[in-house]
Predict the 3D structure of the following.
Amino acid sequence: MQKTRKAPRRTRLNAEWLNRECFCVGVDVAALQHQLEADLKPSGVTGRLIETHPHLFSAVPVFVARAQVEGMKSLVEAIHVAAGLAGFRESVMSDAPAIARRAPGPLGAFLGFDFHLTVGGPRLIEINTNAGGAMLNAALRRAQRACCTAVRRLTHHQADAGDLEETFFRMFVAEWRAARGESPFGCVAIVDDAPETQYLYPEFLMFRRLFEARSIPAVIAAPGALRHERGAVWFGGRRIDMVYNRLTDFYLGHAQHGQLAQAYADGDVVVTPHPHAHALFGNKRNLALLSDAERLRGIGAEEACIRTLVEGIPRTEIVAAADADRWWRDRGAWFFKPARGFGSRGSYRGDKLTRRTFAQIVGGDYVAQRVVPPGERLAAAGPEGPTLKVDFRSYVYAGRVQLIAARLYQGQTTNFRTPGGGFAPVYLV
């Protein structure tokens, strides 16, 4: 394996240098894929992940300065402080659907805070309320390898796979307790549309094993397979106590989600993450408020909190058709995103826009965010080695960061189609 080239003493273990030059630490992707296949085989998965998911994991890690990580944590904390203000809640709930306005008790599992890193610190790109990949990134911890002592020390800065899995399980228990107190924690349904066809279906199986290993029954189900009757939700003859919600219909407004929506509204099942969490954190319109100092002052935010938010969140504005000429003229400085979108779908860099797509944007529910380029990681040694873009995701619960992971990719937005790309572990420098 290629060794790290010797760096000058004053730059040794500098994150930027390591992301260009270090290839002596990484992920044994073949071993990881083999282990996951073995873990999933009892669930009936017999195919090879390397064939069905060839770009799920990257073989190279990403190095990040501890100061950047602390900056991410500070921004997460500031957003939660702002979200606790009555003025903030009144503002973001004013145009939320009725199902999202009631706070159900649970906080919402797996908030995902996505960042690009700059020389001035981390910049928050968006917040997701059903962030996928946490269990897959926990599995990454089992397959890390390093062959130089200096870099091997970096692998000790984050929790190992077993600790992370226990942290995730305790989060679901906390969600249950917030809704049902000391009542026995029963069956969990991991719910998504056509779950077997989802790209991250292997992770659904991993979550089912997580619950079952701790004596909590679990099933994977499409919402249409659930019935709401007799004051409860049922899957076949089994009562469902909690729904781990992986749907991207954040407000449960689609017709096929009607029974689940009614059960949630009636309090007959615990749903996490839930519509209220999306309205509070995930709606991209909220970033327009969180990046506006004057509006933050107007809702009673303190100056220290305002500074953290405005510095860490690129300026975001709601796109109005009345300003179409301005948006077209200045489009190169902005990234356009659907306010209720997910997974980069319908998102466009302004300098790549056609007139036809732009017309759809100004006629739809979009926000525009100042462009902040992602960081970079060299994927292989040598002058011909490909350079990949890097997004960082902080998995957050109750205002605390559980795990920081990275995604490597090429193209306008994150994806799992890039050779050498995929989820990558993060090492602190």
